[in-house]
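Practice record 12: protein with (2R)-2,3-dihydroxypropanoic acid.
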Amino acid sequence: MSQPTLLITRHLPESVLQQARASFEVKLWPHDEPIGQHLIAWAQGCDALLVMATDRLDAATLRQLPASVRAIATYSVGHDHIDLYAVTQRGIPVFNTPDVLSDAVAEVALLLMLSAARDAATAETALRSGGWGPWSPTRFLGQQLTGRRLGLYGMGRIGMGIAQRALGFGMQVHYHNRTVHTAATGFTYHASLESLMEHSDVFCVCAPSTLQTRGTVNRARLALLPRGSVFVNIARGDLVDEDALFEAILSGHIGGAGLDVYRDEPAIDPRFLQLPRTTLLPHIGSATLDAREGMGRLALQALEAFLLQGKPPANCLNPDALASPFAKGSA
Ligand code: DGY
């Protein structure tokens, strides 16, 4: 029996490609640039797609997908790049990669919290440019995290991972989520984002990008943060009003910032590069081999279960597509 054909839209770690080749006829987009508008042509004759967070699958793109495509996996936990309504209407299930990257992303959140609180970016730049100067009791002063209130906007798996690590730094954990997290005992729940922001010495965005969350970290809410607070975003740039963020950092209202995500990646607003007291990372949250291999394994397991074994995988974002009379799996 011939293997189903799988289009993979970026080069992946070797072990993941090997696993893919064991179960599928793999068609690999070989370039460093995202596949972009070539996706439709490359998807011809494919049974499944393994796409990246940088591939936009909006309604127009999904309409043009060849009828052969029966399943899509995204090499990410975030799925804001896929129009779930449109893909469900086409009866195509979408699988994502939760859990396996939570530790890696939580570690980057801690890295950014520490770096922003101590302004490691400015200190390192001074050293590298020969500007260290004599030791000074008042230079390179930062804030310590011990005893500070950490405000987590979002308490999913990644939020929980950040909270647990922050306890090790002696921080008090506060959070805002749609619902109270049953396992978040000892943490302070805030029913509103406004209340959370008023009580955050360190504020960290770790909520998914959805219709409800986009743009919610706006000028009025940023003004609620205590003066001098630390701002971190490891989720998605589009939750935040970037103009308002620039103003809050430049005015000193935000005392330090650590960012891994931006509205326009990778062509970020050039004003970011001029910001003082800010650590900037190029969306490396899940960039460890452990996480990237785990993401590949999980995405492929879901495609194998659905296409080869006719089983519904747990990490399906649109179970309605599995139930749909139009679903095209081999079950
Ligand atoms: C995700 O999985 O959503 C990450 O942001 C991609 O690295």
